[in-house]
Amino acid sequence: MALNPVVAEVTDRIVARSRQTRADYLRRMDAATGSGPGRAKLSCANWAHAFAGQTVADKLTAMTGAQPNLGVVTAYNDMLSAHHPFERFPEIIRQAAREAGATAQVAGGTPAMCDGVTQGRPGMELSLFSRDVIAMSTGVALTHDAFDAALMLGVCDKIVPGLFMGALAFGHLPVVFAPAGPMPSGIPNAEKARVRAEYAQGLIDRAELLKSEIASYHSPGTCTFYGTANSNQMMMEIAGLHMPSTAFVHPDTGLRDALTAAAAQRAIELAREGRGRMADVVSEKTIVNMIVALLATGGSTNHAIHLVAMARAAGVLIDWTDMDQLSSVTPLLARVYPNGSADVNAFQAAGGVAFVTRELVEAGHLHGDVTTIMGGGLEAYFKEPRLEDGELVWRDTVRESLDPTILRPASDPFDREGGLRLVQGDLGRAVIKISAVKPENRIVEAPAAVFETQEDALQAFKDGKLDRDVVVVLRFQGPRANGMPELHSLSPALGVLQDKGFRVAFVTDGRMSGASGKTPAAIHVSPEALAGGPLAYVRDGDVIRLDPDAGVLSTVGVEDLSARPAAARSRAHAEGSSWGYGRELFGAFRQAVSTAEEGASVCFTAPIGADGHDDGPPDPNVVDRAVDA
Predict the structure, then answer these.
(1) How far is CA 349 from each of CA 342, 353, 511, 584, rounded to the nearest angstrom?
(2) I need a labelling partner for 111 at 20 to 30 A (CA). Which of 118, 333, 366, 594 fits?
């Protein structure tokens, strides 16, 4: 099948836009490749330090200087259910390396926050910034320069994007990502949503809510809804950085252990063969494939930010217009909660990522001619792993979906368009996820109720002040203001208002989450209010129109918003967002961070005296903020 013309057009535009930054990135990676294996550059004293704590057998292998050494970067902790299984992985990986005649070491660890724990709490204001800390931590881990390949252990929201960004700084190496898999299914997602809505209305007590939540999140493994964590895993497969169909195999199973061992041995094999560099795997075409797959599956809105930063780490420049145009021609193939009632386990059983990959390639929506850790092309990702007589084998995925209420072919999608759209107007640019919003609820024109904290918005809901047609505006939630927290705590309240029959929408310069659901929400509004963005000029009662079908986010009947004085953030909110819960450690991040559409990152700000090559975005204000800081 010929490539879809819009996919081709957007790809060509990205290639042209990225020509300088991509060339500079590849130049650096080529220079690193040309300097030879890390172990050959270390002095005897350096090399001895690197292996001082290893087993005698591993030391003997290392002393030859001829065998690859695999560096493992892990985001293990046992508070995140998704990362709990990683406790066992290093020994599986070390043993797999020994069987391949090589060595493996845990090069370092990264922090790993759980947004499910910090949701609605002050710690959520560090969540997005943790992505860049993880990228930096990955750089620190690999900077020992003692490794010939790398293996990334991570699953959840900011962790995989951070590992991806950090690993690309060492893109001269082969890099493989190894996930842990989802937990078994708990109570149905519809039941979970019902209980949350009842609690928001005060109809049940906290004990009943907790009972429901424990039945939902109940064992090691990823949460089973299709949020940011599971969107991460889907994209790592489409990017060709996983072993095929690795994403949604349960932890603590023989198949999962076999896949983890296979990932380690594949990285070692690539190192021996001198191919499969991450810099070559992650190209402009790869980034487009990741966007398309996200849209085709109704994935997380967080990736409207993360993908920009992830691509930038490879020297590839993308924006929301690219995503919007790709969405206009991408068929929606999956209905997984919150875009449906099924969870990722049911999605996997129906055909999973292998089915989606094959359908999108054969329908001309993905670039099939990309490099992956499995070689050239995406055909290897049309297969699924099995254990047969204790041996890991791959078989072709099903030709037809085993449950068309969850997964459909490209010839008969749930929708002819993807799940994400760009909206813009006199209120700025924002994204909206429409795949979970019923068509009759998507267009809202109503008076604004303006808040600067979600606590104030929730109190207004409890007091009955929002029982009307309303556009809830929550400003001063951008990356410069308070780190751009997720505001998912508002979702149940907004859903209750919509269920009462009111026309309801949400507009914010903050984030929602991968679980953003049935209420239309224009999020990531850029520029943010604290940077003088239009939301700073909105007043209570202004009529706002949100129309994702027409791509509109604007006021109605206001001639010139900027003619008004801008609202100032309250002193209590400003001070409360700058200290406590570790927030005082991130003041420099808030001053130097780029805009949401630039990836909300501090990793690509040009240093003083930079020559302008691949050091930062072209916006001089970003550089000036870094200098002033």
Answers:
(1) 11, 10, 31, 46
(2) 594
CB atoms within 10 A of CB 440: 6
Tokens standing for residue 379: 């055909």
Per-residue pLDDT tens for 62-76? 888 889 999 999 999
pLDDT at 345 over 80: yes
Buried b (16+ CB within 10 A) or exposed e, 322-334: bbbbbbebbbbbb
CB atoms within 10 A of CB 501: 8
Taking only the tens place, the pLDDT of each residue in 467-522 is: 999 999 999 999 999 999 989 888 889 999 999 999 999 999 999 865 567 899 99
Burial class (CB in 10 A: 0-12, 13-18, 19+), 543: middle
Q: How many helices, marked H, and strands, marked E, lie in the chain?
A: 25, 16
Q: In angstroms, rounded to a whole number, what is the distance separating the alpha carbons of residues 140 and 625?
A: 25
Angle between helix axes 352-362 and 284-296 (nearest 10 degrees) is: 110
Alpha carbon of 575 to those of 128, 298, 379, 580, 585: distances in Å?
19, 37, 53, 10, 14
In whole angstroms, how large is the CA radius of gyration of the chain?
24
Residue type, 317: L
Distance CA 574, CA 569 (A): 6
Please tell me whether residue 285 adopts helix, strand or coil conformation: helix
Q: Which of 317, 51, 24 is nearest to 171 (CA)?
A: 24
Structure token digits, residue 610: 């930079």
pLDDT, tens digit, 9 for 90 and up, residues 360-383: 999 999 999 999 999 999 999 999
SS3 621: helix
Spatial CA neighbour of 158 closest among 137, 120, 127: 127
Q: How far apart are the first and last CA of the chain?
A: 52
Query: How many residues comprise the chain?
Result: 629
DSSP tag of 434: -
CA distance linking residue 506 with residue 490, whole number of Å: 9
Instruction: Copy the structure tokens of residue 269.
Output: 């094999």
What residues contact 192, with CB distance under 8 A and at least 6 apart?
A: 186, 212, 213, 216
- Residue 492's nearest CA partner among 293, 345, 344, 338 is 338
Residue 596: how many CA atoms within 13 Å on its side-chain side? 32
DSSP string, 294-349: HHHTT--TTHHHHHHHHHHHTT----HHHHHHHHTT--B-B--TTSSS--HHHHHH
Nearest-angstrom CA–CA distance, 472 and 450: 6
Contact 386, 255 (CB under 8 A): yes
DSSP code of residue 189: H
Distance, in Å, from the CA atom of 524 to the CA atom of 334, rounded to the nearest integer, reads: 24
Distance separating alpha carbons of residues 42 and 30, to the nearest angstrom: 19
In whole angstroms, give the CA distance from residue 186 to residue 223.
10
* Phi, psi for residue 113 in degrees, rounded to 5: -80, 155
pTM for the full predicted model:
0.91
Residue 628 buriedness (CB in 10 A; 0-12 / 13-18 / 19+)? exposed
Q: Is the pLDDT score of 622 beyond 60? A: no
Residue 108's φ and ψ, nearest 5 degrees, are: 175, 170
| Matching residue, tokens 């072993």 | 243
d(CA 216, CA 390): 32
Nearest in space to 299 (alpha carbons), one of 163, 202, 179, 161: 161
**Count of CB atoms within 10 A of residue 602's CB?**
25
Q: Which residue has the tokens 């099924």?
A: 342
